[in-house]
From TrEMBL, chains A, B:
Stored InterPro entries: GntR_C (IPR011711), TF_FadR/GntR_C (IPR008920), Tscrpt_reg_HTH_GntR (IPR000524), WH-like_DNA-bd_sf (IPR036388), WH_DNA-bd_sf (IPR036390)
Keywords assigned by UniProt, alphabetized: DNA-binding, Transcription, Transcription regulation
HTH gntR-type domain location: 1-68
Name of the protein in question: GntR family transcriptional regulator
CDD domains: WHTH_GntR (cd07377)
SMART domains membership: FCD (SM00895), HTH_GNTR (SM00345)
Length: 213, 213
DNA sequence: AACAGACTTAATGTATACACTGGGGCCAAA
DNA sequence: TTTGGCCCCAGTGTATACATTAAGTCTGTT
């Protein structure tokens, strides 16, 4: 694997997992020593991260990890509602029915995944991720899909702010199931509405359980 | 100005203005000689361009200028309708009325700008650009604004494909005026509808006058 | 003649040396 | 003591040399 790719993945992971707190200055030499590569790949990685909005060039004095304020979360969800609502509607029109029927059935069984002792909820998040991928594929619009992928980076970061208790995750699974069901039924307005409902509930939960850093 | 910035601006301009045709291979050494800087800034510029989607890394053999197919144009306008529709609606709710009343009045006088002999339509495009900026500012959502800015790069490129005759530009000015009027009136649904109408007309015009390369 | 494999080479990927710039600290004067 | 200006330097910005990889070609075998 290329060194710049490793540096990018490592830094991105560190930021998303909040191991690098907002405001942290990422000096090129320092990071190159920490990651065991030269400045060039680190520089390229920092450029990509700044383009994504995870870091911010701080005029001559390195790049800093961007903060996520409460207003940012509101803005993020406003854009998310726009994009994912449209995506769900398009998937309902263009998607292949059996795929979403299958996902719907699996999402109805999601509570079983949350009862066991896996603390990282790996299976659950993998299933939700498969729904995202199925929608991405169904919309057959690479620009829209790319915009949503760019958003999801920030959303994973926000998710780490909230306490994902089993109760919320079960409710979220039911909401996801409703989205999959609407898409499988080929009903774009219902799919969009279900997405809107889900995102509003998610946002409320994040804001309610959010612990300021 | 930094060399990487100059290289980026120059390459971007060359691509948008179709001086660099789709499929053109941009070798780092070649471009560094042409632009009079070393490979490092050129490399950074190419990275930024690839992140924006104007170029595409072609696995080991340089980066190539991306093509714009008819499907791409459809996808582009689908996303554009989603984003700009939402933006217009938000601007109608959050924007400052006098700003858009002023823009509305100026847009109604746009035909005067198109009657003179300026072939590049500089004043006209500047006015339309001011409307875009006013909407960007009014929505007060940096993520949405950034997504729209990223889109506009591709749209300028598409615009160069179409024949911008005076008739179409006058009609477009009237459509823009309708959008500004709806925002000034504080009517989000009308603003969104006016945007939808404008974008559909634009797309029809592009597809009708598009000359394949 | 067609295909498989290694070689060639031209490009990218990486490391590092040098240039430049902006900020912080120190010193001096009021 | 405070403030203004200068100096120092840490860090980014650029150039270039070296390593690596992948596409294209050539040759040998089937």
């Amino acid at each position: 694997m290329r060194a710049s790719e490793r540096a990018y993945a490592a830094l991105r992971e560190d930021i998303i997992e909040w191991r690098l707190a907002p405001g942290t200055v990422l000096a090129e030499v320092e990071q190159s020593e920490r990651l065991g590569v030269s400045r060039t790949p680190v520089r390229e990685a920092l450029g990509r991260l700044s383009a994504e909005g995870l870091t911010r060039a701080a005029g001559g004095r390195g790049v800093v990890v961007t903060d996520i304020s409460l207003e940012d979360i509101d803005e993020l969800f406003e854009l998310r509602e726009t994009l994912e609502g449209k995506a769900a509607a398009l998937a309902a029109v263009r998607g292949e029915r059996p795929v979403f029927e299958q996902l719907h059935a699996e999402l109805l069984r999601a509570p079983e995944m949350l009862s066991d002792s896996d603390p990282s909820r790996h299976d659950y998040y993998a299933l939700v991720g498969r729904l995202d991928e199925a929608i991405d594929a169904a919309i057959s619009n690479s620009y829209l899909a790319q915009a949503m992928r760019a958003l999801r980076v920030h959303l994973v970061r926000v998710r780490r702010l909230a306490a994902d208790d089993a109760g919320r995750l079960q409710a979220a699974a039911a909401e996801h199931a409703a989205i999959a069901e609407a898409i499988a039924a080929g009903n774009p307005r219902l799919a969009e509405a279900a997405t809107t409902v889900h995102l509003h509930r998610s946002l409320s939960h994040v804001k309610a359980t959010h612990t300021p850093h």
